[in-house]
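lol so apparently i was supposed to do this last week
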Amino acid sequence: GAKGDGRRTYRFFETGMDARAKARRSLELELRQAISDGSLEAWYQPVVNLEDNKVSSCEALLRWRHPERGMISPAEFIPIAEETGLINQLGHWVLNTACAEAANWPDEVRVAVNVSPVQFRSQTLALNVAAALAASGLAAGRLELEITEAVLIRDDEAALEVLHQLRKLGVRIALDDFGTGYSSLSYLLRFPFDKIKIDRSFIRDLAGAGASSSIVQAVVNIAAASDMTTTAEGVETEQQRNLLHILGCTEMQGFLFSPAIPAAEIRRLLLSPRGKAVSAGHSVFERS
Ligand code: C2E
Ligand code: MG
Ligand code: MG
Ligand code: MG
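anyway here it is w/ magnesium ion bound
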C-alpha cells in the first residue's frame, strides 16, 4: 500500500544520498542560520599601490566562524550559497556591511566587494548597490565591484546591461581572477572595466621559466592601452613585488603585505602611525 511505498522511497533516498551530499545539506542549513545569527563576518585585505606604496583599497572577504568547525573558507560555502540562492541575501549583507565600514576610512581608500554571477541574474543588483550607497553615505567612486568572467559567459546582453547600470551609478568595476576563464582576452573588449585583477596562478610562477611574466606583461599592456589599471593577486614575496613593479603592474594584494583582517584591525591599520606613514607616501614596508 501507500505506506509501504513511502518507506521504500525513504530507504532508497537514505542509501542513495552519499556522505558528501549529507554534509552539504547540513552546511546549507547551518549557513541559513549563520546569516541570521551574526556568525558571518566581513574581513578586509589591503591592496597596495606599487608606485607609492599607499593602500588604495581594501577587499571585503567573507569569513564564517562556525561554532564547531572553526573558520570555514568562502571557497567552501560560496558555491553552496550560489546553488541554493542564499548568495543573494549574503551578497546584500556584505555590500551593506562593507559600504558602512568604508564610510569610516580615509577618503582616499576604496572598498572592493565581490559580486557573484547569481546576483547579476536577480535583476535587483543596481538597485541594491544604490541603496547601500545611500544608507552608508559612501561616495559611489569609493565602491569597487569585483566580477568574474562567469558573469559575461552566460546571458551576455543582460549582464552587460547591468554592468552599464552600475557604471552609471558611478561605482568602479574590476574583473577578478583574470586568466582563469575561457577566451579571456575577448571579454576585455566587451566592457570597459576599470581594473583587471591578475589571478594568483600567474603571480606564483612569475619568477619561473614559464610564460607567466610574458602573460602579465601582455595584460598590463592591454590594460594601459584601454585606461584600465592592474592588480596582482596573491603576492607573497619581495621578488614577486619587484618583478611586478618592473612589469608596470599598478597594485598588489597578498600575504607579503597583509592577509584579510577583521574590520577593527583594518580601521586601526588605516588610522595608525603605520597607516599615516602610508598616507604620507612612505613605504608601508618600513618598520616604524
Ligand atoms: P577572490 O575574490 O579572488 O579573493 C582573493 C582570495 O585570495 C582570498 O581568499 C584571499 O584571502 C586570498 N589571498 C590573498 N592574498 C593571498 C596570498 O598572498 N596567498 C594566497 N595563497 N592567497 C591569498 P578567500 O578569502 O578564501 O576567498 C576565496 C574566494 O571566495 C574569493 O576569491 C571570492 O571569489 C569568494 N568570496 C569571498 N568573499 C566573498 C563575498 O563576499 N561574495 C562573493 N560572491 N564571493 C566571495
Ligand atoms: Mg575578489
Ligand atoms: Mg580574485
Ligand atoms: Mg583569485
